[in-house]
């Protein structure tokens, strides 16, 4: 199924809703999912170290396996795919690879690269676990939101899911121990529109210059 990519950011933001009912007959292609994931990974991350990792579950038998782990939420089996988003708690080990590519692309000098690699190796590596988890959760949230907007721009729908048994999920899908669960994202074509929601007015959530 081909969908039209929307170029109106404001429309995309306003039309994105959490959709829980999907058309099981719609199967997204690997190419479509890869395009969405590529756009998602343009999101910012701490020191551009990109700690996000993804498991795309589009095989129907594996979605059925996931269903009870996700507390029998039907979107798991009806959506085209479920994307598991993780944060790699050893993300800093990719520093040399990422910054060398930046030098090759002309985005930084070798001297700046060495400074960044030093930060990755000496600062991030030695952080306490709580701080590491905080970083990958922040960056994982950024990439997840960008993924959902990219999907909406292509006419697809999503719902972020925190309701699943993280321990059983890791066991069932052989997730590395150093991968932190961030969320599951069901993605596909809505069978029913997402429920309209309201937002708090700005004067209740925004302060200017002081709290």
TrEMBL record:
Q: Which SUPFAM superfamilies match?
A: FMN-dependent nitroreductase-like (SSF55469)
Q: Does the keyword Oxidoreductase apply?
A: yes
Residues forming the Nitroreductase domain are 13-189
Under InterPro entries, the record lists: Nitroreductase, Nitroreductase-like
GO MF term (any one): oxidoreductase activity
Q: Which UniProt keywords apply?
A: Oxidoreductase
- Asked if the Swiss-Prot or TrEMBL record annotates the protein with the keyword rRNA-binding, the reply is no
* Family under the similarity heading: Belongs to the nitroreductase family.
For this protein, the record's PANTHER family field holds:
NAD(P)H NITROREDUCTASE YDGI-RELATED, NAD(P)H NITROREDUCTASE YODC-RELATED
- Name under which the protein is recorded: Nitroreductase
| Organism (species) | Paenibacillus aquistagni
């Amino acid at each position: 199924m081909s969908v039209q990519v929307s170029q109106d950011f404001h429309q995309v933001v306003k039309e994105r809703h959490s959709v829980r009912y999907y058309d099981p007959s719609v199967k997204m292609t690997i190419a479509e999912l890869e395009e969405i994931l590529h756009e998602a990974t343009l999101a910012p991350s701490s020191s551009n170290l990109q700690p996000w990792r993804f498991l795309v579950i589009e095989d129907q038998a594996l979605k059925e396996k996931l269903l009870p782990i996700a507390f029998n939420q039907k979107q798991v089996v009806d959506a085209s795919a479920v994307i598991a988003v993780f944060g790699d708690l050893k993300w800093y080990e990719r520093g040399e690879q990422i910054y060398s590519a930046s030098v090759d692309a002309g985005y930084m000098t070798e001297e700046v690269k060495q400074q960044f690699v030093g930060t990755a190796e000496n600062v991030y590596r030695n952080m306490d676990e709580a701080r590491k988890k905080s970083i990958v959760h922040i960056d994982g949230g950024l990439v997840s939101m960008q993924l959902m907007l990219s999907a909406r721009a292509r006419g697809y729908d999503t719902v972020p899911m925190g309701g699943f048994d993280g321990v059983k999920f890791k066991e069932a899908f052989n997730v590395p121990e150093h991968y932190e669960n961030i969320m599951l994202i069901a993605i596909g074509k809505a069978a029913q529109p997402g429920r309209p929601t309201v937002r708090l007015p700005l004067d209740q959530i925004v302060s200017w210059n002081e709290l």
